[in-house]
C-alpha cells in the first residue's frame, strides 16, 4: 500500500543493529523503503597516509589494525604486496602456515557472522552456540600465534611462529568436532521456521545486479556466481589444495547464510589437508630494509570477499603510496540496491547480510566546505 | 548504601559505541557477553539507547567525523554517567594517534572513569575493568561531570 508521501528515517551512526558507526538515510513509503542514502566516513582514520610515514616493518602492524576481524587477511595481503615489491620468495612451510591461519580466521569470521545473523533474526540461542564454538577457534589461534585477535604471525619474508606437531593434532581434532557442530547448526537453520521466515526471499540480489554493482565474496557467491580469488587467482598454496567454491542460487539472506556455513566446512577440509601436507623447512627469510622503486598489487580472498592492496616503493625504507580496497566497499552498492523495496523491519537483516566491516572500508572522508 | 546506589552497582546498563576502531576491541567486547565470559552474571546488560544507559563503553580512536556524535550520545545519557575507554585506541589514540583525522583518546573529548589498555584487551581484561568501575561506584561514587567537548581540538 502506498501513502503517496515518504518519510525519512535516519539509521545510525549509533544504532543497536550496527556494531560500527555508519549512517544511512532511508526514505520510506508506509513500511517500504524507497530510497537509501549511505553516508560513509565515520571510521576514516587516515590509515593510507599513516602507511607512508612508517617503515615497511612497522606498517605490518598497522595493516593488522585496519580491521580486527580479518586482521590476518590484511597482513597476508600486505606481505604479499611488499614481497612483490622486493621481490622475495617465501619458504613453503611459511606459506602453508599463513594459509592455515587464513582459514582459521575464515572459520572465526563466518561463525561470528552466522551468529549475528541468527541474533538479528531473533534467534539468540544459536547466536550463543556459535559464539561458544568461536571461542574455541580463538583459543587455537591464540595457541598458534600468541594472540586472539591481532595475531601478528605474518612477517615480511615468512611467519614468526611455527606450528608444532602437537598443535597440528589438536587443530585436526578440533576441526572434526567443529565440522560436526556446523552440520548440526545447518540442520537447525534449514528447518527452523522462525529463521526461514526472516531470511527466505529477503534481500534479493539478482546475479546480473550482483555483477554490475561489483558485489564480492559470499554475497556474490550467494547470487549463484562462482568467483573466489583463492580459485581464480591462487595465492599462498591454494593452487595445490583441492577445494570447492561454494555457490547458492537463492540470492537472498538465507542463501548467504548457507554459503557461509558450507564455506566453514570447506575451510575445515582445507585446514586438515594443509596440516597433512605441511612442508618441512625454514619459516622465514630476512627481507631487505630498503626497497628499490617498484609497484605491486596483492589480492586476497578475505572472509568478506576480495581484498586488494597496492604499494609503490621509492628506494627508501618507507612506501611512497599505499592503497587498500576492502570488500565491504564493493558490497555497499549492492546492499543499497537490495534494500529498496524491503520492509523496514528487514533492514538490519539485509544490512547484516553482506557482513559489513566499515573500518576496513572507510578510506575516504567527504568534506563539504560550504556546509 | 542507598537503594539507588545499590541498584546501580547490581545492574549497570551498558551502551557500546565504536568511535572509529578496528573492530578488534568490539568483537572482544561482544565476546564478553557470550557464554564463556558472560558478564550478565554481574547484572550488566547491553543497551541500545543512550537514554537508558549508565555506562558508556567506547572503543577506538576518536575520529574527526565522530566527535560530535560521541558528545551528543554522552549528553543524552542520564546522570550519573560513567565512561569506560576500552582498548589502547580509546585510551590514547593507539596506533592511529598521529593520523590526520584522529583526535586521540576518548579523554580528549569526554571525561573517562576507567581505562582498559590492550590491543585489543582480552574479554577477561574488559570484565576486570568494568568490575573496577563497579568498585569505584560502591566506594566514593565519583562520576565525570558533563563538560563534554571542553578540550576538543578544532
Ligand atoms: S586498540 Fe587495537 S584492537 Fe582495539 S580498536 Fe584500536 S587497533 Fe583495534
Radius of gyration of chain B: 15 Å
Biggest beta sheet attributes of chain B = 5 strands, parallel
Low-pLDDT runs of 5+ residues of chain B are 141-154
How many strand elements of chain B?
A: 7
DSSP summary, beta strand count of chain A: 8
User: How many domains in all of chain B?
Assistant: 1
Quick one: which chains have the greatest interface?
A-B, 39 and 40 residues
What order do the helices and strands of chain B follow?
HEHEEEHEHEEH
Number of individual domains of chain A:
1
The proportion of residues forming helix of chain A, as a percent range, comes to 40-55%
Strand composition percent of chain B: 15-25%
Question: In the CATH scheme, what's the topology name of chain A?
Answer: Cytochrome-c3 Hydrogenase, chain B
Q: List each distinct ligand once.
A: iron/sulfur cluster
Query: Tell me, what's the shape of chain A?
Result: globular
Strand arrangement, major sheet of chain A:
1-2-3
Radius of gyration of chain A, taken over Cα atoms and rounded to an integer in Å? 21 Å
Shape of chain B: globular
Mean pLDDT of chain A equals 87
Overall helicity of chain B = 25-40%
Structural class of chain B: alpha/beta
Q: Predict the CATH topology of chain B.
A: Rossmann fold
Task: Give me the secondary-structure topology.
The complex is a heterodimer of chains A (371) and B (154).
Chain A: E1 7-11, E2 23-29, E3 32-39, H1 47-53, H2 56-64, H3 71-85, H4 92-120, H5 124-145, E4 154-155, E5 158-159, H6 165-191, H7 193-199, H8 207-212, H9 217-221, H10 229-232, H11 253-276, E6 294-302, E7 305-313, E8 319-325, H12 327-339, H13 347-353, H14 358-361
Antiparallel strand pairs in A: 1-2, 2-3, 4-5, 6-7, 7-8
Chain B: H1 3-10, E1 13-18, H2 24-31, E2 45-47, E3 55-59, E4 62-63, H3 67-76, E5 82-86, H4 88-92, E6 102-104, E7 114-116, H5 123-138
Parallel strand pairs in B: 1-2, 1-3, 3-5, 5-7
Antiparallel strand pairs in B: 4-6
The structure holds iron/sulfur cluster.
Residues 21-22, 24-25, 59-60, 87-89, 94-95, 119-120 of chain B line the site of iron/sulfur cluster.
Amino acid at each position: 500500500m502506498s501513502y503517496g508521501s515518504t518519510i525519512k528515517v535516519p539509521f545510525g551512526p549509533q544504532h543497536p543493529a550496527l556494531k560500527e558507526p555508519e549512517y544511512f538515510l532511508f526514505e520510506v513509503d508506509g513500511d517500504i523503503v524507497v530510497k537509501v542514502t549511505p553516508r560513509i566516513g565515520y571510521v576514516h582514520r587516515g590509515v593510507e597516509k599513516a602507511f607512508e610515514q612508517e617503515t615497511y616493518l612497522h606498517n605490518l602492524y598497522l595493516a593488522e589494525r585496519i580491521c580486527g576481524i580479518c586482521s590476518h587477511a590484511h597482513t597476508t595481503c600486505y606481505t604479499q604486496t611488499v614481497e612483490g615489491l622486493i621481490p622475495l620468495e617465501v619458504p613453503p612451510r611459511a606459506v602453508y602456515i599463513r594459509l592455515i591461519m587464513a582459514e582459521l580466521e575464515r572459520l572465526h569470521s563466518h561463525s561470528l557472522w552466522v551468529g549475528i545473523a541468527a541474533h538479528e533474526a531473533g534467534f539468540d540461542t544459536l547466536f550463543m552456540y556459535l559464539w561458544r564454538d568461536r571461542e574455541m577457534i580463538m583459543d587455537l589461534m591464540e595457541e598458534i600465534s600468541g594472540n586472539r585477535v591481532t595475531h601478528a604471525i605474518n612477517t615480511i619474508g615468512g611467519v614468526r611462529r611455527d606450528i608444532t606437531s602437537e598443535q597440528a593434532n589438536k587443530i585436526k581434532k578440533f576441526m572434526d568436532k567443529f565440522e560436526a557442530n556446523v552440520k548440526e547448526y545447518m540442520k537447525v537453520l534449514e528447518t527452523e521456521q522462525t529463521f526461514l521466515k526472516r531470511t527466505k526471499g529477503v534481500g534479493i540480489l539478482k546475479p546480473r545486479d550482483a555483477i554490475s554493482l561489483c558485489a564480492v565474496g559470499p554475497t556474490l557467491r550467494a547470487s549463484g556466481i562462482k568467483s573466489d580469488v583463492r580459485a581464480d587467482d591462487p595465492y599462498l598454496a591454494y593452487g595445490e589444495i583441492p577445494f570447492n567454491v561454494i555457490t547458492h542460487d537463492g540470492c537472498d539472506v538465507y542463501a548467504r547464510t548457507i554459503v557461509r556455513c558450507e564455506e566453514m566446512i570447506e575451510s575445515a577440509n582445507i585446514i586438515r589437508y594443509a596440516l597433512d601436507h605441511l612442508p618441512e623447512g625454514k619459516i622465514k627469510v630476512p627481507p631487505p630494509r630498503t626497497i628499490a622503486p617498484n609497484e605491486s598489487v596483492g589480492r586476497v580472498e578475505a572472509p568478506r570477499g576480495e581484498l586488494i592492496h597496492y604499494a609503490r616503493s621509492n628506494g627508501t625504507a618507507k612506501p611512497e603510496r599505499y592503497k587498500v580496497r576492502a570488500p565491504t566497499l564493493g558490497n555497499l552498492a549492492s546492499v543499497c540496491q537490495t534494500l529498496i523495496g524491503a520492509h523496514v523491519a528487514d533492514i538490519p537483516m539485509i544490512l547484516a547480510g553482506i557482513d559489513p566491516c566499515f573500518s576496513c572500508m572507510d578510506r575516504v572522508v567527504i568534506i563539504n566546505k560550504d556546509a | 548504601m542507598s537503594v539507588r546506589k545499590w541498584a546501580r552497582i547490581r545492574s549497570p546498563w551498558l551502551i557500546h559505541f565504536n568511535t572509529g576502531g578496528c573492530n578488534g576491541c568490539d568483537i572482544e567486547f561482544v565476546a564478553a557477553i557470550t557464554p564463556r565470559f558472560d558478564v550478565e552474571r554481574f547484572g550488566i546488560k547491553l543497551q541500545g539507547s543512550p537514554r537508558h544507559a549508565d555506562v558508556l563503553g567506547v572503543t577506538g580512536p576518536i575520529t574527526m567525523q565522530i566527535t560530535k556524535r560521541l558528545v551528543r550520545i554522552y549528553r543524552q545519557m542520564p546522570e550519573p554517567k560513567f565512561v569506560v575507554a576500552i582498548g589502547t585506541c580509546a585510551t590514547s589514540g593507539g596506533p592511529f594517534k598521529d593520523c590526520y583525522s584522529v583526535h586521540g583518546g576518548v579523554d580528549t573529548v569526554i571525561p573517562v572513569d576507567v581505562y582498559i589498555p590492550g590491543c585489543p584487551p582480552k574479554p577477561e581484561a574488559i570484565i576486570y575493568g568494568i568490575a573496577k568501575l563497579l568498585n569505584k561506584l560502591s566506594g566514593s561514587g565519583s562520576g565525570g561531570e558533563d563538560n563534554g567537548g571542553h578540550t576538543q581540538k578544532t
